[in-house]
Write a structure and sequence with these properties.
Length: 690
């Protein structure tokens, strides 16, 4: 039957003092009751009498049934444990010495709790409430039949079956009532609500177990063999309940990680919100999205990705406090429900712990993988919050967090406006052509050795007619998702080559670098199209550099590498952008055979202050030169960084210290001014005569 286990329907929280007082009171009452029964009955029973042999058999079956509980599925997704020992405990109670029933039941429950690793007070409470339960059931049976409370043995007749069933009902009410009150005090819930949940989950199983008790008692008086036959239905009950519980578990849990799935998460969130309304506090919902997980899957294989997901599930579960639910929603998305908790800071602290734990590298198949997660949080700050609302808000916060990978964001109402705007932007991007206001700006690259401008990087910009300038970090992912990036990439290449042609006419013979999307590299016709565009503008192929990131390659490596190989054959230069931020930089360098390697600005910007960043930059330069590649450093924002890069042998640099991205018109003015300065610096100075 019911015990105060760690699995029940309660949200496990720090035990309040009132629960401790209640548990201690139950234990004291049980100790006194058992002491009285033991003193008055032990000496009056002939323990060697053959009449007690069947009682000893029932006692053995009681212990066996207690140690092999039936797992019963609950409607709220939890699993209760119901012991088939109920049948044998009641049978022993009805036909044998009360002290034997109390002693054996107590020992069996204590052994079960010890094996389950339960706390001492909880285990003592479980033993105590069973002693009081058995005594109450025996008292009801004696009152209805006239039998003596401390009779050594009792012969059960057919006309006493009703009394036996009422005693069984008493057993259920006292047992479940005592535990329900403890759970209610601990979780701040209604005891009646807890009992109702027990009835829904255990009702049918309990009726069967109680109904078999008088049959087992009478069978034990008739024949040991018949008693064995009575045990067979209990085996069927146990097996059927186990199968039902297993099916429910599979329906509510993720097969790969063993975590709760979306259905169970919603059930737990609903329950937590209900409790928050009843007892106060708030509920937090977190959504976690792993960074670069697709790169791992595509590069190392799905078996490594699966192992990584299992490790993430283990780490997140290890961080969760009592009462929290961790779920996998699908792919690399996880969720956590925590609460009710008194302060929102507890939710933020949990998110910070999870984020920190997930930043630690994982080793799978001897491969060291760096991971991280973006986390969005929603809090039920009002009683009107629903699970759907919290999940939606957490998803909005997650989107904000993903703008800076590895970030943690708490939902704010102002994010809703961004979400509405994002939907509007997607609608504007989804047309056949490029969106209104789309254009390019150009950022120069200079040689560190000479200071000469040798290349320009074309950067996409979007000045929305309503919302104004939209950051690339916002519109490029949206364009990727809705397919608009293909047209935008085409326009970027075409416009950059036109600009390059116009600059050449103006006397500036430069190269142009354009970052291309994965969508462009999936099109097998791109090499033909690029050849035609180059010919149309009379631009030599070696003047065009296409920049690709590792994530671009990993989306479909075979097709992307095939397209890039054809572009190389045309004479187009290739550059690997954001080098050092992915998983497979070295492996793809050999296959891609690029001309340029761009050091990510995240390393360059802080290289003077962070020794590790400088080591990465220096190592990248040495690696690139060892492979015969040109190195371009992004994010140069001060003279000291430029000087240090020159000392390390970096070939080219770009950044705000050189020039900010600018329009073609501004760029032409800047180039003319810079050339005029170079010419003036090269002229011999005239002596000033007095």
């Amino acid at each position: 039957m019911s015990t105060a286990t760690a699995d029940g329907a309660s949200v496990r929280r720090r035990r309040p003092a009132v629960v401790t007082v209640y548990a201690v009171g139950i234990v004291v009452c049980a100790v006194v009751l058992f002491g009285v029964v033991a003193v008055r009955q032990i000496s009056t029973v002939d323990w060697g009498s053959p009449d007690l042999l069947t009682c000893y058999l029932l006692a053995g079956l009681l212990v066996l049934g207690e140690l092999r509980p039936v797992h019963v599925a609950r409607a709220d997704g939890d699993t209760d444990q119901v012991t088939v020992s109920t049948t044998f405990a009641l049978a022993l109670l009805l036909s044998g010495p009360l002290v034997l029933a109390l002693l054996v039941q107590g020992v069996a429950v204590a052994a079960s709790d010890a094996l389950g690793g339960r706390q001492r007070l909880r285990a003592a409470f479980n033993v105590a409430q069973y002693i009081l339960t058995l005594a109450s059931a025996r008292a009801v049976f004696c009152l209805m039949t006239g039998a003596g409370m401390l009779d050594p043995t009792t012969t059960i007749t057919s006309d006493q079956v009703v009394a036996a069933l009422v005693a069984g009902a008493t057993f259920f009410v006292v047992n479940n009532g005592a535990v329900a009150l403890a759970v209610a005090l601990q979780a701040g819930r209604s005891a009646l609500a807890v009992i109702e949940g027990d009835l829904r989950a255990q009702g049918l199983t309990t009726v069967i177990l109680i109904g078999l008790a008088p049959v087992a008692a009478m069978a034990s008086q008739y024949s040991v063999l018949v008693l064995g036959l009575v045990a067979l239905p209990l085996v069927g009950v146990q097996r059927s309940a186990g199968i039902a519980a297993q099916r429910q578990y599979e329906a509510l849990h993720d097969g790969l990680t063993g975590l709760a799935n979306r259905t169970l998460l919603r059930m737990r969130a609903d329950r937590a919100l209900t409790q928050a309304r009843e007892v106060g506090g708030l509920v937090g919902v977190m959504l976690l999205d792993l960074d670069h997980f697709k790169d791992v899957n595509d590069t190392l294989g799905h078996h490594v990705g699966d192992a990584l997901l299992r490790e993430v599930a283990r780490r997140v579960s290890a961080c969760q406090p009592d009462g929290a639910t961790v779920a996998r929603l699908g792919g690399d998305e996880f969720a956590v429900v925590i609460g009710p908790v008194p302060e929102p800071e507890q939710v933020r602290e949990l998110a910070a712990r999870i984020s920190s734990r997930l930043r630690e590298p994982v080793v799978v198949d001897d491969v060291r993988i760096g991971i991280g997660a973006s986390i969005g949080i929603a809090l039920s700050n009002d009683h009107e919050a629903t699970t759907d609302t919290l999940l939606q808000r957490a998803d909005i916060a997650l989107y904000q967090a993903k703008n800076n990978r590895g970030d943690v964001q708490v939902y704010s109402p102002e994010y809703d406006q961004n979400t509405v705007m994002r939907l509007a932007l997607v609608a504007d991007l989804a047309g056949d052509g490029v969106p209104e206001g789309f254009g390019l700006v150009f950022q120069p690259q200079i040689e560190t050795a000479t200071g000469r401008v040798v290349c320009l990087e074309a950067l996409m910009r979007w000045r929305h007619p309503v919302h104004g300038p939209i950051e690339p970090e916002v519109f490029i992912p949206l364009a990727e998702n809705c397919g608009a990036i293909r047209n935008m990439s085409h326009r970027a290449v075409e416009e950059s080559l036109r600009a390059l042609d116009r600059l050449r006419v103006a006397g500036h013979d430069l190269s142009m670098a354009v970052n291309v999307s994965v969508r462009l590299l999936q099109d097998l016709e791109v090499p033909t199209w690029v050849r035609e565009v180059l010919a149309e503008r009379s631009v030599p192929a070696e003047r065009l550099t296409l920049e690709v990131t590792e994530s671009t390659l990993l989306a479909d490596p075979r097709r992307a590498l095939g397209v890039l190989r054809e572009l190389r054959e045309l004479g187009v230069r290739l550059a690997v952008d954001d080098f050092g931020t992915g998983y497979s930089s070295l492996s793809y360098l050999q296959q891609l055979r690029p001309d340029d390697l761009k050091v990510d600005k995240s390393f360059v910007t802080h290289m003077l202050a962070d020794e590790n960043d400088e080591v990465i930059v220096r190592s990248t330069i040495e690696l690139a030169h060892g492979l015969g590649l040109t190195v371009v450093a992004e994010g140069v924002e001060d003279p000291a960084t430029l000087g240090r890069l020159a000392d390390l042998g970096c070939d080219r640099v770009q950044g705000f210290h050189i020039a900010r991205p600018m329009s073609e018109e501004s760029l032409l003015t800047w180039l003319d001014s810079r050339r005029a300065g170079e010419v003036a610096a090269a002229l011999p100075r005239q002596e000033v005569r007095s």
